[in-house]
Specification:
alpha+beta, Jelly Rolls, Arc Repressor Mutant, subunit A, 2 domains, 4-stranded antiparallel sheet, 7 helices, 11 strands, 36% helix, 19% strand
């Protein structure tokens, strides 16, 4: 019997929802699968545990046992440097896969923490590989999602290396808004699940610098920021600040 991929399980009250009935089907692994193939994928899904804010999904150095699809909430991934500092490498929303970093060496190169109460769909890697060998559509969708993540990583490196701080923030907010829109939510108003120090870390900014940038964008009437709630008031000005028309929409 396959081992459970997640140790801390706090909430078994969430009913198991089939892939075909999930609202995230069009942006997650089941996209492009016929009903019979979706049923096969359903057999791989382990219990969808609930993790509290700050709990680990996996740690750097853990053997690769599963890949995960975020079902609810959000996560961050990070690497600890030799001196113990933390570098944020990504933020993940529902429908996005976490754990792909482990594919290269059969162990996770980064850690992952829940940013809020969150749940995942966990798929045992050995069983998943076997099913991928049988279902071409699933294999192609996995490769497509891996390719998408690689492209986003490249765009992020380019943005962090080439853009000024305010341009990075504008690009991040527009990209995050688009990701929320893909999930059926507003692209103009959303919550930042990550604390300011995590966002500053990811964007390569000091927390004080990030706070000043938010204040300036508010003073200029570009957006409203109340605690973690962001409301974009002037999308065109934000796009202009990010040079949006010149770059990939998924830059950060």
């Amino acid at each position: 019997m396959s081992q459970s991929c997640v140790t801390p399980i706090h909430d078994f009250n969430q009913l198991k929802v089939s892939c075909g009935a999930c609202s995230l089907t069009d942006i997650c692994l089941p996209h492009g699968l016929n009903p019979e193939e979706q049923e096969i994928l359903d057999t791989l899904i382990q219990h969808k545990p609930s993790l509290k804010r700050g709990e680990s999904l996996f740690h750097a150095g853990d053997p690769l046992k599963c890949i995960y699809a975020v079902r609810s909430g959000s996560f961050k991934t990070f690497i600890n440097t030799a001196d113990g500092a933390e570098q944020i490498t990504g933020f993940y929303l529902p429908g996005e896969l976490i754990g792909l970093d482990g594919l290269g060496h059969d162990q996770h190169r980064c850690g992952s923490l829940a940013l809020e109460s969150s749940s995942v769909c966990a798929m045992n890697m050995d069983e998943f590989e076997e099913v991928c060998s049988q279902i071409g559509n699933l294999r192609r969708q996995l490769l497509r999602l891996i390719g998408k993540e690689i492209n986003q990583d490249h765009e992020s490196l380019l943005a962090l290396g080439q853009l000024k701080g305010e341009e990075r923030l504008a690009t991040f907010l527009l990209s995050l808004g688009k990701r929320y829109q893909e999930r059926g939510f507003s692209a103009a108003e959303f919550n930042l699940s990550m604390p300011r120090h995590d966002l500053a870390n990811y964007l390569g900014l000091a927390v004080e610098t990030l706070s000043r940038m938010f204040s300036k964008l508010q003073d200029d009437g570009v957006l409203s920021a109340k605690r973690r709630n962001i409301r974009i008031l002037d999308e065109q000005r934000l796009r202009k600040l990010a040079h949006w028309q010149c770059r990939n929409i998924n830059s950060l």
